[in-house]
Q: What sequence folds into this?
């Protein structure tokens, strides 16, 4: 197949890859849990189904824009050089049209089946990730992940607002947990991919400040994450089930951050990164289990 033919007839799998389905799935899990935590009763099925559909479509649109903006960087990195736009299988213009259609569809679904606040917050999250983070922060500062992490932390808030139509301390706390989790999660990967980020001229913290500095900040953020993760119990949003799970999961995260900081294992960075994904998933599952099966003293 020639490059021109690939551009003219890209496969549907290429377009699916542009949406980063695995990332969107993790976001939808936290969005779904945000919905379920927002009410003691069952979430109305139109909100449950179409609310997550709308949020997912908007997240997918933002992911496509990320592919377009990062196509030069993607072509230089081993992890991303086979992405559809980087390899020329999908034209940037076609991808942007696809992203616009996804975003418009997502906004329409949210306005029709949830509420305007949810739709506007979702749009703000989309623009924050696709424009502010991908288009500016990623290349401007080694604190890109810290500042830009707010957009990625929004899904549980969006799910909560889809059900209730209003903000509150509880969904903002869910955002704070993901916001605090993001730096140690991504910086661990950045250490593992340090040479690739340097080659692509992306000012990730290990590139600009060195690995020792980054490992220290991963450890500090993990301590902060442990403290933040206990706040749902402190404000009585959750009970003993969640408290025990948060402590066990958080202490295990601290273990990996300490191993990484001390340089005790050769592949500690990628191990820390992989554990961080399981940590977030299991922490939110613990919130959900505690919501439906609470234990009290």
A:
């Amino acid at each position: 197949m020639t490059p021109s033919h690939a551009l003219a007839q890209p496969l549907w799998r290429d377009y699916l890859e542009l949406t980063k389905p695995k990332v969107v799935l993790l976001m939808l899990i936290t969005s779904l849990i945000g919905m379920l935590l927002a009410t003691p009763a069952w979430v109305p099925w139109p909100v449950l189904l179409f609310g997550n559909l709308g949020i997912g479509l908007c997240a997918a649109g933002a992911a496509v824009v990320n592919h377009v903006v990062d196509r030069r960087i993607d072509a230089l990195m081993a992890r991303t050089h086979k992405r559809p736009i980087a390899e020329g299988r999908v034209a940037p213009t076609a991808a942007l049209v696809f992203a616009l259609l996804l975003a418009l569809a997502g906004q329409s679904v949210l306005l029709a089946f949830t509420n305007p606040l949810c739709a506007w917050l979702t749009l703000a999250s989309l623009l924050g990730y696709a424009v502010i983070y991908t288009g500016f922060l990623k290349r401007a500062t080694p604190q890109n992940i810290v500042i830009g992490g707010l957009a990625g932390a929004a899904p549980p808030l969006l799910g909560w607002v889809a059900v209730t139509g209003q903000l509150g301390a509880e969904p903002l706390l869910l955002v704070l947990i993901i916001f605090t989790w993001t730096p140690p999660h991504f910086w661990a990967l950045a250490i593992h991919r340090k040479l690739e980020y340097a080659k692509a001229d992306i000012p990730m913290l290990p590139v600009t400040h060195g690995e020792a500095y980054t490992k220290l900040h991963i450890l500090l953020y993990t301590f902060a994450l442990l403290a933040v993760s206990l706040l749902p119990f402190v404000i009585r949003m959750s009970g003993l089930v969640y408290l025990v799970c948060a402590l066990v999961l958080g202490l295990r995260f601290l273990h990996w951050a300490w191993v990484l900081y001390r340089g005790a294992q050769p592949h500690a960075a990628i191990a820390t990164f992989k554990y961080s994904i399981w940590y977030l998933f299991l922490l939110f599952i613990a919130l959900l289990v505690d919501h439906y099966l609470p234990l009290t003293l």
